[in-house]
Amino acid sequence: MVFMTVILLAAGLSERMGQNKLLLPFHGKTIIETTLSAIPDSYRKIVVTGHEEGKIRALLSSHDVTFIHSEDYLKGQRWSTLSGIEAVENDDFAILPGDLPLIESRDIVNTVSLLKDFTIGRAIHEKTPGHPVVYRKEHREKLLSFSGTMKEYLHFHKIGFYEGGIGCIADTDTPESYEKLCKWPD
């Protein structure tokens, strides 16, 4: 019985990186495989694809995931996120970018546990907002009809915060950030 769905965002163009950052090697896997491995097995996983969809699908085909292709991925991350939210069934859900290879399972689980007391929870690290961002299922329709950004939506709601590790904010947007992450110990 699944009550939590994690939406793993894998649709972007990786423009600042200059190549698909999710497919870059990281400690014997790729960035996206490493991020995916932190999601607990008991959670449903939706991978939202867009750019280089075939490569992402081929790479993750042996994993227990549901693929959703975002037709609007060229419009930006918000549109890919909404594609993932549309695919959520009757579960609470989390949004997680695919380029967080240092995220740990405990950061995801502890952020999800905030939903006992809040309708939205978010991981932070040293006051910097990070991921995942988790929502009770009652937010699904509200998010789908909201015309602003995801960040604007959060401003209208009380949020619980979990102080997570560096992996909640350490993404791989640029060659420099990727190089720093690759030096991080296993």
Q: Can you walk me through this structure?
A:
The chain is an alpha/beta fold. The chain has a single domain (4-182), classed as Spore Coat Polysaccharide Biosynthesis Protein SpsA, Chain A, CATH 3.90.550.10. The protein is built from 7 helices and 9 strands, in the order βββαβαβαβαββααβα. The strands form 2 sheets. The protein has a 7-stranded mixed beta sheet with strand order 5-4-1-6-8-7-9, with helices on both faces. It has a two-stranded antiparallel ribbon with strand order 2-3. The longest helix has 11 residues, at 77-87. The chain is globular and about 40 Å long. The mean pLDDT is 94.
Q: Keywords, please?
A:
Spore Coat Polysaccharide Biosynthesis Protein SpsA, Chain A, alpha/beta, 186 residues, 29% helix, 7 helices, 7-stranded mixed beta sheet
Can you describe this structure in just a few lines?
This protein has 186 residues and is of the alpha/beta class. 29% of the residues lie in helices and 24% in strands.
